[in-house]
C-alpha cells in the first residue's frame, strides 16, 4: 500500500518572520503552527507523511525548514530560492543544508516572469533539474503560464508542480483563461498539479464549498490523469475555511468521483508525490525518457 502523503503544508512561528501575504482578516493564521499541532490531524485523517513548503521569501526560512525537517512525518521539503535573481539563487542553492530537500520555490503572486527564460535562469533551472529537485509554482496570469510553458519545454527534465490547481476562479465560477492555461500546462509531460485551495480563493469564499471545485477538478483529471495529480491540504492556510479533516476528506471524496481504480486512487493519495518528488530512497525517473515516450499533444 502506498503511503498517504499530504503534498502541501506549512509550519511557522509568527514571531520569527513577516508574512506579507497574510491579511488582517486572517485571524485564524495569527498563531504558531508546528509539527505537534499537525500530528493529531494527520493521525485522525490517516495521513502518513507530508511535503513541507516554504511560506516566506528570506534566507532564514531555509534554516527554519531544516529544523522542521527533523519531524518524522515530514517526507520532503520544498525550500526557498530567490529565483528571480539567478546568481543569488545559485549561491543559495549551493549552500542549502536542508534535510529531505526535494524541491524549491519562491512566492510569485501575479508578478511578471520575464526573467524566467533568460539565459542565466535557464542555466539555474538546469542545475535544479540536475539535482533532481522539483520547482513548485502557482501561475495566476496568462503571461505567467506562457513563461512557465516555455521553460518547461526548454528544460524538459525539470519537474514542475503547479500548486493549488493553478488558481482557478472558483469564487466566481468563471472558466477562461484558466481552462486554456491548464490544458496547455498539461501538454507538457514534466508538469504535475496539486489539488488544493490557495489563500486567495479561501479569502474570497465566505465558507468552505468543496462543490465549487468540482468542474475545475474534473477538467484537471481529464487533462493530467492520476499519475500527475496530488492531493494536498494547504494546512494551516486551509483553516481559514475548514478544519484539516474536513478539507482532506472532502477533497479525497471529490477526487475519487473522477477516478475509480485502486491504482489511480493510490497515485492521488501518495503515489504521484512519491514519484514526482523522489521521496525516501525512490528517485524520480528520467524525465527525458518520459518526454520521448509521451510527446506533448
Describe this structure as you would to a colleague:
The protein is α/β, with parallel strands linked by helices. The chain has a single domain, classed as TIM Barrel, CATH 3.20.20.140. 40% of the residues lie in helices and 12% in strands. It has 11 helices and 8 strands. The protein has an 8-stranded parallel beta sheet with strand order 1-2-3-4-5-6-7-8. Strand 4, helix 4 and strand 5 form a beta-alpha-beta unit. It is globular, with a radius of gyration of 18 Å. The two termini are 32 Å apart. The C terminus is likely disordered.
Measured as a percent range, the helix fraction is 25-40%
By DSSP (H or I, 4+ residues per run), the number of helices equals: 11
CATH topology-level name: TIM Barrel
CATH architecture: Alpha-Beta Barrel
Largest sheet: 8 strands, parallel
Spatially, the strands of the biggest sheet line up as 1-2-3-4-5-6-7-8
Order of helices and strands: EHEHEHEHEHEHEHHEHHH
Radius of gyration: 18 Å
| CATH first level | Alpha Beta
Q: Give the total of beta strands.
A: 8
User: What's the number of domains?
Assistant: 1
* Molecular shape: globular
Beta-strand percentage?
A: 5-15%
Q: What would you give as the CATH superfamily?
A: Metal-dependent hydrolases
**Would you tell me the overall average pLDDT?**
91
What structural class is derived from the secondary structure elements?
A: alpha/beta
- Which blocks of ≥5 consecutive residues have pLDDT under 50? 281-286, 288-297
Termini separation: 32 Å
Amino acid at each position: 500500500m502506498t503511503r498517504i502523503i499530504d503534498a502541501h503544508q506549512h509550519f511557522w512561528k509568527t514571531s520569527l518572520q513577516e508574512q506579507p501575504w497574510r491579511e488582517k482578516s486572517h485571524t485564524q493564521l495569527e498563531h504558531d503552527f508546528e509539527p505537534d499541532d499537525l500530528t493529531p490531524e494527520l493521525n485522525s485523517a490517516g495521513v502518513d507523511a507530508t511535503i513541507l513548503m516554504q511560506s516566506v521569501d528570506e534566507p532564514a526560512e531555509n534554516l527554519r525548514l531544516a529544523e522542521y525537517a527533523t519531524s518524522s512525518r515530514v517526507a520532503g521539503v520544498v525550500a526557498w530560492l530567490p529565483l528571480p535573481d539567478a546568481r543569488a539563487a545559485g549561491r543559495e542553492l549551493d549552500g542549502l543544508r536542508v534535510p529531505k530537500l526535494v524541491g524549491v520555490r519562491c512566492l510569485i503572486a501575479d508578478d511578471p516572469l520575464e526573467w524566467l527564460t533568460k539565459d542565466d535562469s535557464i542555466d539555474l533551472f538546469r542545475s535544479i533539474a540536475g539535482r533532481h529537485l522539483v520547482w513548485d509554482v502557482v501561475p495566476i496570469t496568462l503571461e505567467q503560464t506562457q513563461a512557465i510553458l516555455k521553460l518547461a519545454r526548454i528544460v524538459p527534465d525539470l519537474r514542475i508542480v503547479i500548486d493549488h490547481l493553478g488558481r482557478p476562479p472558483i469564487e466566481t465560477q468563471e472558466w477562461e483563461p484558466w481552462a486554456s492555461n491548464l490544458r496547455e500546462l498539461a501538454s507538457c509531460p514534466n508538469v504535475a498539479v496539486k489539488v488544493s485551495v490557495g489563500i486567495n480563493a479561501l479569502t474570497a469564499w465566505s465558507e468552505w464549498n468543496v462543490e465549487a471545485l468540482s468542474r475545475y477538478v474534473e477538467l484537471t483529471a481529464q487533462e493530467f490523469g492520476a499519475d500527475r495529480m496530488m492531493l494536498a491540504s494547504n494546512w494551516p492556510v486551509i483553516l481559514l475555511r475548514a478544519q484539516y479533516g474536513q478539507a482532506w476528506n472532502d477533497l479525497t471524496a471529490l477526487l475519487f468521483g473522477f477516478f475509480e481504480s485502486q491504482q489511480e486512487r493510490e497515485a492521488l493519495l501518495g503515489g504521484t508525490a512519491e514519484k514526482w518528488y523522489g521521496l525516501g530512497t525512490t528517485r524520480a525517473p528520467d524525465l527525458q525518457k518520459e518526454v520521448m515516450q509521451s510527446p506533448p499533444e
